[in-house]
Amino acid sequence: MHVRLAVVLTLATAFIGLYAAQDFLWQRGRPPANFFEQVVWALTFFWIFPVLPSVLACVGMLLHRPPRETPLLPMPIPVCFRVVSRGQNAAVLRETVLNVREQMSRLRLFPYRIEVVTDIPVELAISDDLVPLVVPTDFRPPRGTRFKARALEYARRQSNLPTNAWILHLDEESRITPSLIAGVRTAVLEEEESGRFRIGQGTILYHRNLRRNPILTLADSLRTGDDLGRFHLQQRLGVTLFGLHGSFILVRNSVELQSTFDVGPAGSITEDAWWALVQMEHGHRCRWVHGYVVEQSPETIRDFIKQRRRWYVGLVKCVLHAPTRLRYRLPLGLTLFLWSVSWIGVLAMYLDLVAGQSTLPVVRVAGNFSFAAYITSYVFGLKMNLDNLRPRPWLLRPLRLPLYALQIALIPFFSIVEALGVIYGLLSPDSGFHIINKPGRSDAVTPHAWVHVRAAAAVACLLTSVIVASHLPPTSPLVQAVVHLPSVTGFASTQRSPSLPTSVAPVTLPEQSTGNRMQAAMTAAGFQGGVTLYVDSAGGGQQDLAWSAQKLFQRLAGLGANSVGVAFPVFMAGVAASTVYADPQQTPTTGTLSTIIDAAHRQHLAVMLRPILDEQTLMDPQGDWRGTIRPADARHWFASYGALLRQYAEIARVDQVEVVDVGTELNSMQGDSAAWRNLIADVRAVYPGQVTYSVNFDFERLGFADALDFLGIDAYYPLNVPEGASVKQLEGAWLTWISDLNRLRAMAGRPVVITELGVRSEPGAHLKPWVWYTRAVPDMGEQQRYYEASCSAVFQAVAGIYWWLVTLDSPYADALHDTSYDPLGKPAEESIKACFSRWLPPLTTARRG
After folding, report:
1. What is the largest CA-CA distance in the chain?
2. Which pLDDT tens digit goes with each residue over 673-719?
3. Residue among 147, 70, 85 at smallest CA distance from 115
4. How far is 696 from 666, CA to CA, in rounded Å?
5. What pLDDT, on the 0 to 100 scale, is given for residue 495?
6. 597, 217, 177: which is closest to 407 by C-alpha?
7. Which of 212, 204, 217, 211 is nearest to 410 (CA)?
8. Distances 77 to 147, 162, 166, 288, 293 between C-alpha atoms, Å
9. Which residues pair with 800 in a beta bridge?
10. Which pLDDT score, from 0 to 100, does residue 293 have?
11. What is the helix (H) or strand (E) element at residue 446, kind and residue range?
């Protein structure tokens, strides 16, 4: 039970910890801002692929339990420890033989013998329990089998073992344990009693060189976790879905004699997996053996990568060429496909650290679960290695937590070297059998170990530097140094130099400007005459965004506008949500915003950047809208919203935006003045331009108005005159609200700019200007009269007007049949031009003559 609890706690801690780390490092919700980030966003979908093997691994670990304690009585059935080696590492072979003898002398549960199969003669301590088998150089299996499979086939033919004996296949560096001896005895007795003669396999540990080669020993603890996860599950199911490990196969000799290791060249690289597939085809099944074999990790990173490359290439050949039905090869093929693309997921993970952007929620859940399962496999594997460390595991108890922490910290390094093995196999599918160097017993730390430490430290430093650098404020010396590099300076020189405007109007147009006279007149008068563009698509919704924006802004400049509001949606999951985020599909990317801003500046239009909390996703039958949100955690909401605003403030700084609007109609949140002051201060720390906030027309008081450069208002005041009212009647209805605007200006101690003003082109729209969707018939005169009357009524009370709204599709082809707010292509467009012409110098007309 404690094992299962440990797995669940580790998995849950890793899963929650990943979310916490991501939310700490990045404000989730920022959409991809350029082509690089769009590529990274697409690559994150590869995080979904490991979900299935991760689930299988977790199920296998949860099913793991220690064997029941039973009396260990000897059995008469013999067991052969068959060790296969080329014979080049005689010292290691001698240690393996000695290990078997020592362990069997302590726990003699069955008759045994040791068969050592080598390509060249090796001098060993001869005894009755040892049978050396040297493969003749002229031994040629009919199918041309090579490498270890050739030696196994020779031993199969030449060994005089009785058919009822059992064979435990080992590698030259394998070490058996008391648990293995007991597990083999139990498995053999159960199979002999049932007559099923299943093929057994258990867990392989890699703790032998923890002291002398710690980095790669910790890396190989993943293999132990994989044994206890996926491989344990397949053994419990009785089918070799993922192959077998050749260094721990328990098989009855009668079963081995019925098969062959003459697997041909294609099967000679991973002969164990090929042989396992063939055994399934022949109807043999597998089982779990409770016991541990201890092996040794590669000594060098190069050997580590080459070992993984050999496994990958060999398994591919098994899937393609093994003489079995497709259904037996398909699970292994799927595993290989996931292994083949795993490096893409790893690449996406590290590129995403640089980008720090949003991912789809389902992708994030899948990726975090898979990575949490990955971490759990490492931790569970290390736990089993430490639990079975001999002879004094208690010596490592004080070091357990540091070892777990070190292993988790090194997972980025481990994932890179694991991925390099796959990439190496894809780029260079060598057909050879690379033998890695595994020296004998020694306590000295190898020189290779220090190379591993340096390599791991370099990866850790690189990742840390990337994360730290990406979180530096724009004013930091490092960022400023990068900005002033020659390659950056050349680009930056094409942008206008930043300056803090001294009035609420856009900066004065330069003398050489070709901007029209209405623009220049309003700018000189300190008035913002603008139209708001609303963009609700990540890419702007246009094939040629720059051309569409240029065409629109040329039209607005022709009307005399000197400013444009660029509004776009940001989102909450509901009125009680505590996170504000940018939607990858509906919120414009950084690149989209930059293109639009540049097009506006080219037409001498100052820009007000307005992220607006989307209302359509918040409205419900209870009447909720953006002004009635009630986050469950207001503190987290402000942190989330503030982090999002800082990203847009950075865009505004880089693109020389004149004004940033930090909020719109957030009535229910306006009471926390301290939080808003902190948020505004954070924006100003990034952005040197003007800052405003847009209140709704029905607000009472704003406690942080003095922190703004000017106060914005969305002036959807109801004008209480009948449908079809004349311009004069509409002007008269404004008088009540003009006093309200004057009160607002006095209360705020700041100039007031109307950031939204307009009505739909339908009958009686002036009665409820805020109603944005009806099914009324078009009425172009209503909209035109409202624009004319409103301009006359308010222009002396405010420092600017932004008409609401236009889109990149404006004007619509059927504009005269359109009832939306959009004034372009309608009679109201001429009212806008007439309104802006009010700021022409008085003698302009006379000078024309």
Report:
1. 124
2. 999 999 999 999 999 999 999 999 988 789 999 999 999 999 999 99
3. 85
4. 8
5. 37
6. 217
7. 217
8. 31, 10, 8, 19, 21
9. 528
10. 95
11. none
